[in-house]
Amino acid sequence: MNRGERVDVIADVRLTGIDRIDPFGTEPVDVHLAQGRIADIAPARALPRRGAVLDGAGGWLIAGLWDHHVHVTPWALAARRHPLGEAASAAEAARAMGDAPVLADGRRVGAGFRDALWPDAPTRALLDAATGAVPTYLINADLHSVWLNTAALRREGMPLDDSGLLREEPAFEISRRLGALDPAAGDALVRTALDAAAARGVVGIVDFDMAWNAESWHRRLAAGFDATRVSFGVYAELLDRAIVEGFATGDALDPDGLVRMGPFKVITDGSLGTRTAACSHPYPGDAHGRGELTVAPDALVELMTRATGAGIACAVHAIGDVASSHALDAFAVTGAVGSIEHAQLVAHADIPRFARLGVDASLQPEHALDDRDLTDALWAAQTALAYPLRSLADSGANLLFGSDAPVAPLDPWAAIAAAVQRTRDDRPAWRAEERVDAATALAASTAGGSLTGCALEPGDLADLVVCDRDPLASDDLRGTRVAATMIAGRVTHSAI
Q: 84-95 burial by CB neighbour count: b if 16+ within 10 A, else e?
């Protein structure tokens, strides 16, 4: 079928899910749709196939997949930025940028470096020697630091620090400036990126761009955007504007409810890679280096109280265990609803508080594999749990999976595989006790999260995916191929 067509019957597909109550087992079924929902599920050909039929050819039908943490514009721009993920030293990264193409705006921009375990330190002089007078920007894989040469620092009006490194808010400001493209050009990149996501079975994302996203998504909708559902966030500097304009979480920008207001996002600490995540024990080599809280606990309570009073959910970035504890305290005091984003290091005593407070754990399983060596090196002295997927799930917390794209690729199958297998190479599973089962991982990659299960029933929204294997039985989740993706029965991707 063609993209944009509406499906009335999905024929000859199989169902999965440990929470199923249907009698069909692995036998093929027809799934009949009406008004954007599942109207009936019956044995193949048991009911007349009226209207537009999508032939599932024996594939597996699952609920549509969500990525619950995306930075849309930086992710869409990633293809235009020089990749630095393989750079093994500051010198190697600087040399790579000396050979990188100069963009139309006169800058060189690279992304994806991980300097925490480099044998040498980034310096402005090192980068200047390799890149000369062309303004050059290297964005850390975790987005929490940016390395600039002298020409770039002067262009941006930033202090000429010897390291050339900007961290946290100054780094975020540089990313905002680099993302300030001509809207038409930027929107074209976003459309291409989200079409690619639909081809991986994605029906929805949570967009945490650091911008006034209502304007961006109004514009994209007016231009015909319809690839995915979007829930967009708002940051502290724009919270008052959202309140004044009357936005509450769940409010739709369009008649079909494709794009909706999401949560208030607040970043309360840094990151592991930048060594700024707020932790209870110091980082190696610095007896006083425990990261930093970028929002004080009392200020966090005040912000979350304002958001909650306006009907806006809260998404609190907290990577270190100290930050997670303060975030959970703030949820308890304010009665806010929402999530803790990342929760990469969580105190044992805080694990059950997620479920008790009804706070979602919004996690990025691929980060555990990206950071396994960093975690073992930089958090060796920590006593809290690192990347505690299974511990949170067993406590009754609702897990929501995402990628943090562009920090990790926007690929839900990679996230599911990382959560289930805790490895992606020939090394053994990392901290294997924190693996979750495939059913939990699949449900965590849908709209409602791990507590909603993954079975399909009549009445469910017809946000659906046909794939080539049973996700609960496959040993090669990363290799999953998607035959079709639908939003409310409308085809957003088809390889059939």
A: beebebbbbbbb
Map residue 343 onto helix, strand or coil: coil
pLDDT at residue number 156: 97
Closest CA to 289 of 302, 276, 299, 301: 276
Give CA–CA dist 434/441, Å, rounded.
12
d(CA 396, CA 390): 10
Q: Which residues pair with 484 in a beta bridge?
A: 466, 494
Give the helix, strand, coil percentages of the chain, each rounded to 5. 30, 25, 45
| DSSP letter assigned to residue 240 | H
C-alpha 266/C-alpha 209 separation (Å) is: 12
CA dihedral for 445, 449, 451, 452, sign (positive or negative): negative
Question: Angle at the Cα of 64 (from 59 to 68), degrees rounded to 5?
Answer: 140
- Residue pair 408/309 in contact (Cβ under 8 Å)? The answer is no
Task: Please state, in angstroms and rounded to a whole number, the distance separating the CA atoms of residues 84 and 280.
Answer: 31
DSSP track, 44-106: TTSS---S-EEE-TT-EEEEPEEEEEE-HHHHHHGGGSEE-TT--SHHHHHHHHHTSPPPTTS
Distance CA 375, CA 273 (A): 9
pLDDT digits (tens, 9 = 90+) for 415-448: 999 999 999 999 999 999 999 999 999 999 999 9
Predicted confidence (pLDDT) at residue 287 exceeds the cutoff of 80: no
**Range 324-334 burial, b when 16+ CB lie within 10 A, else e:** bbbbbbbbeeb
Chain segment 369-403, per-residue pLDDT in tens: 999 999 999 999 999 999 999 999 999 999 999 99
